[in-house]
Amino acid sequence: MSKETCWIGLSLGRDNATLSTTSVTDNVDIIANEDGDRLIPVCVSFGQQDFLIGTQAKNQLVFNSRNTIQQFIDIIGKNYDEIENRDAKLDENEGKPVYNIEIYPPYDEENEEEEVEPEIKQFTPEEISIRYLENLKKSAENFIGKEIEGCVVSVPISKIQNDDTSALKDILHKAGFKYVQAISEPAAAVLAYLDKNGEEDTLCDKNIVIADLGGRSFKSCLVKNSYGIITVLSQEECPIGGKDFDDILINYFKNEFKKKNHIDIDDNKRALTKLRLASEKTKRTLSRTSSTTCSVDSLAEGMDMHCTINKMRFDMLSNKLINECLNTIEDTIDNSNVDFEEIDEVIIIGGASRMPKFQSKVESLFEEYTKIKNDIEPDEAIAYGCAIQAKLLSENIDKPEYKKLLEDNEIKLPHLTQSLGIEDTNGDFIPIVPKNTVLPATRFIEVDNTNTPLYFAFYQGESEVASENKLVSQVVIDDFVIEGGEPKEGEKISIRINLSPENLVINAQNKATKQSTKISIKI
Amino acid sequence: MVLSITLPSVPDDWDNDKSQVVLGKLENVEEKNVQPVGESLFGYIRRKKHKRTYSEDLQIESVLKETVEENDNVESEEEPDILFTLDPKDWKEQDHYLVLGISSLRYKATEEQIKKAYRKKVLKHHPDKKASSGNTNDDNFFKCIQKAWEILGDPVRRRQFDSVDPTFDEYVPDKCDAEDFYDEFRVTFDNNARFSNIQPVPSLGDENTPRQEVEEFYRFWYNFDSWRSFEYKDEEEKEGFENRYDKRYYDKKNKAARAKLKKEDNQRITRLVDNASRSDPRLKKFKNDDKLAKEAKRKEKEEARRLAEEEERKKEEAKRLADEKEKEKERELQNQEKKKREQQKKLIKKEKKNVRNLLKDSNYVMGEKEATIDDIDLQITKIERVMDNMSLEDLTDFSKQFEEKIKSNVSEASNYLDELYNAEVEKAKEKEREMASRELKIKEENKKKTKKLPWSVKETATLINAIKLYPGGATNRWEKIAAYVNDHGGEDDEDERTRKKRMRRPEEVIKKAREIQKISSIEIKDAPTQRYDSSVSSISSIPSSGKSSPANTPTSAKAPPLPWTAEQQKLLEGALRQYPAAKYKANPAERWELISKAVGRSKRDVKLRVKELAEMIKRKKK
């Protein structure tokens, strides 16, 4: 086999990881691991002799809960004191968190009767993460059949903005990835939809809201797409995630069980874990059916649990949580210079966003013309975007200007924060370069003025009436006027406007005759 | 989707010399963070790095991305070192074909070849490639490649460059000798052929080229349609003038310069063709040929005319001779006949003399009796008369018989003469009588002809019917009408003889019909208010207005019907309505009886009247 290498995309959430690639087919493929899982739980489990990850490890939560660990990636690079929600297995070692794992020695037939004492071993979260990621890399290489050279990993936008990605990049390097780029989750989601819908969606100016309802939190982010370049304008987060919707069900079932059997399972950790797994499934089922039954054999004291719940009740119980998500979206938009009416698209991602109630409520928050985009699997959208970016980088990694991107979490570029546009024949203001567009920007329009001088009045502002904005410059182009010529029906002149912070260049071309002219203005 | 809008018109107070006014600075430009993802951002970085514009970049990238099969039909040319010292700013002075490595093809290169050459150069000289191979980051040459493509890739701009291609030879050979002609001019014509709007251009050919082709060649070149233009030599790029006045000034200047160059070039071509046509040995030969041909033609014509004249002369001569012969013949024939006649006359004379002598010798057949002068005279008259109308044969016959009779018996001869004389006299008389009787006969005949039967009322009515029955335009109309009148015009009790007498010929029928028409139309005109009655009376008056005695005709016996009064007319109309024809289909006679009773007139009158009315209505409709 040749030493062909490739890149993968990696969406690394708090609970689940998703791998993606473009190396198998020309399109994006989500990589399934050896268990056939596309969504690989972030979970490891130390057995007597073996080390398990993913679904297999998650299954050990009930039987081997003491040696099964979740959410370890979250705490890498953190001091012990910084960690909220400490795991029971977590200990402190010189201010840093460590996991105490009991490792049993291999089973010995001779000393069958002897009580074997487990050996306590300490692992740092980094060590565990590296072992987990090494496993993922191996799965991906098996899937693709090529050696993996680099990866594009998604992280929450807050980490990108706080430049808090070095620890993660570090462990990825240690796990065997030569190149690592960390990109923000909303950027990856936008990228996924841009790729899916092609040039038509890319080459335009749009304000996009990304609503990401994940396992542990809801993240709302407003971005500007200026011809494919993504600028994050504002973002908000609230600690409501899929888990909270699970909790609603758990509480409901717990109380029902209590009512029926007079057994309180509040302190029964094993029972609660069982109920949590069952509730998660019930929640997913409710996204598709109007009513379902949650069953757990021998939940506590040998009693089984069977409890029916319908969608309406669940919607009612979850209403408060969803409203909080909507408030977060509103805050996001309020914190930007964009109005609700100016939102062109809403992208809904995150596993928990599958809940129909959530989708419909988000939709009703926006104007009718705002497009709701949810046709990529919400779990996989971010991984999809990572794969696109991975492909792009793998093709250009030999060029220093792109290699540099691996270090920069964000790039500072000049933006126009107030729209620049022209006046049309009705006196309306037509934005050509809308606010929040990256400069220099090239935009295209067509004018149908035939055989008359072209008069451009450039205004800057946000009012729909041209004269209420600030007049910046006036330009007249009369190259296409033929003396004594008749105006031709349907004749159009295509205009290319290039705006940089220093000047404005207008290129005009008569589509029929190909005659063209150029005018440059220093502003 | 590209936004399509309509711009407002230029404000009234706009200063026409200006093309732009800047009133304020662009404000609100801030640094913001973008996400380092996506193709567009990569493009942004690339454009910034190579200082390319959006469209330039788009174009280079599309070339790089294109996966073209590398079938090398364009040979790679060496890249002289001088290429790498080119300054993209001096693009006007550069040989763009050389830059793209197709200097051997030049204007002959196809669009495909240019594109391929450009692609190859881009792949080879892309700044990224150079950077990765440790080359200097000087991308001047790449910019030159870009410029070369910008010009050669655009058909219009390529022609502008081809027009002023520095390698083009403007040389026009002078007049030269015949043996150098093809060498001198062929290359020049082939060189200039590239500028022709019409392709392919006819070739100069050689000494064996047919005349038609040579002439076509010169016609083509004298009307040479060239696309050569001189925009490339414009002094200043017309883009980017802040002042429209300046712009117009340069536009004008450039336009004038271009026109001048174009004119010069056209003159150059004309000079070339002039020189060529003056030196072309073939044209000389053609001219000579023409002269010879003309001379030959002239001679030929003369000869032909001479021959024709001769021919004509000969023909006339022959005709004349033939005519003469004919006349001769005729004359001879006439002479012969004359002779014959004269001979006959002579013979008759002789015979007559003979008879006269016989008569004289026989004492005028008076026998023994002394002949008196009167007797002699009478006898001579007799014999002359007898002989007068005799032919030669009769005369000889007569003389023989007469002689014999004289010889045998003089009195017999005398009787014979008398007999013949009397016969002759009788013949003359007979003739006279015949004439008289023929004259009489003719007179009789004429009398008979005019003495035809007059038209009876019934006949006239039948004629009117027949006219209706066979309207104008029918074949043999009048013959048919006449036959009809002959068949149906007679009275019921008519016998065979009167019928034959009554027979009318078509001419008569026509005459009668005209007569009827005239009378009726006049009367209608005279008394339009009483036209029913008058039209009836016109018909009834026909017999009386006939030529000969009406008293002899059978119809005259019957009195003409009385004219209809207005009251009677009214009654008739009412009766007709009261007794409709449909009701009395089985027995129409009864109907007529009833009607006639109601009106108070005879059945026949009523019938006639109704018929008349029907005709009137029909006529009116027409």
TrEMBL record, chain A:
PANTHER family: HEAT SHOCK PROTEIN 70KDA (PTHR19375). Transmembrane segments: none annotated. GO terms for molecular function: ATP binding; ATP-dependent protein folding chaperone. SUPFAM superfamilies: Actin-like ATPase domain (SSF53067), Heat shock protein 70kD (HSP70), peptide-binding domain (SSF100920). Gene3D superfamilies: 3.30.30.30, 3.30.420.40, Actin, Chain A, domain 4 (3.90.640.10), Substrate Binding Domain Of DNAk, Chain A, domain 1 (2.60.34.10). InterPro entries: ATPase_NBD, HSP70_peptide-bd_sf, Hsp_70_fam. Belongs to the heat shock protein 70 family. It comes from Piromyces finnis. This is HSP70-domain-containing protein. Keywords: ATP-binding, Nucleotide-binding. The keyword Membrane does not apply. It comes from the Eukaryota. It holds the Pfam family HSP70. The keyword Nucleotide-binding applies.
UniProtKB/TrEMBL annotation, chain B:
It comes from Piromyces finnis. SUPFAM superfamilies: Chaperone J-domain (SSF46565), Homeodomain-like (SSF46689). Residues 447-504, 563-614 form the Myb-like domain. Keywords: Chaperone, Coiled coil, Cytoplasm. One of its GO terms (molecular function) is Hsp70 protein binding. Residues 426-453 form a coiled coil. Residues 534-550 have a biased composition (Low complexity). InterPro entries: DnaJ_domain, DnaJ_domain_CS, Homeodomain-like_sf, J_dom_sf, RAC_head, RAC_head_sf, SANT/Myb, ZUO1-like_ZHD. This is DnaJ-domain-containing protein. GO terms for biological process: 'de novo' cotranslational protein folding; regulation of translational fidelity. Residues 95-165 form the J domain.
